[in-house]
Amino acid sequence: MELVENKKLVFVEAAHFSYDGTVKLKLSDKRELKLAAEIWTGLGQPKDLPLTDEQQELLEKEACYTTIRNKMLSFLAAREHSAFELRRKLQQRFYKSGAFDVSALVERCLLEMQERDFQSDERFTNRFVESKLANNPHGPYRILQDLQNRGISREMSDEILNKLGNQELWLKKALKCLERLHKKGKEQTPAVLNQKLYQRGFSWETIELALAEYQNFIKHSESGELNAEPETFTTENP
């Protein structure tokens, strides 16, 4: 007697198309899958025929891709992201997504975002550096490290830092750091100040120039010649 495999057939019971170009499929085994409508159309919309294993796997994978795509778009809508940041966030979030290669789906989604100009490492780097220059008294090496931690190449980082910053700007930022330390009212030795500026990412050349101006200010302050005080420093408490 020939044995017949008792395998439950799966059908698509309903398909609801959405204005965003997706379709929500309700399967006979209670699964609900949301994916790009073009994928469903490409299969010929087989509502009256049982789905093959290959078709079910394709629909599951495309539903996973749609979920990843929507999450990536939400990240990009909130702020600019580097490709490295998006990879890390999405792989952490979807690493349990069944038998699918999440890394491959993330890379496919990244390529789509880049082709549509929704994601750009160059644009991210410009915005990141502009924000750091506007809001933080950090030197170029600290910003370089922050960019490398976000997957930006040294070549691109150097190019944009050189475009947006210059020696005069870094000196002003170093003096701003010294001003903040001065306002705390605690006496700092040159060695300590040197180390603090170095930790904030300033070059030795910038540190030397900033400390010379700071020590000149201290010298005039102690002698009572406050009229010689540089504009960068104030004697008022914050």
Automatic annotation (TrEMBL):
Alphabetic keyword roster: Cytoplasm
Pfam families assigned: RecX_HTH2 (PF02631)
GO biological process, one term: regulation of DNA repair
UniProt key word NAD: no
GO cellular component labels: cytoplasm
Keyword match Cell wall biogenesis/degradation: no
Domain RecX second three-helical: 120-159
Cellular localisation: Cytoplasm
Similarity remark: Belongs to the RecX family.
UniProt protein name: Regulatory protein RecX
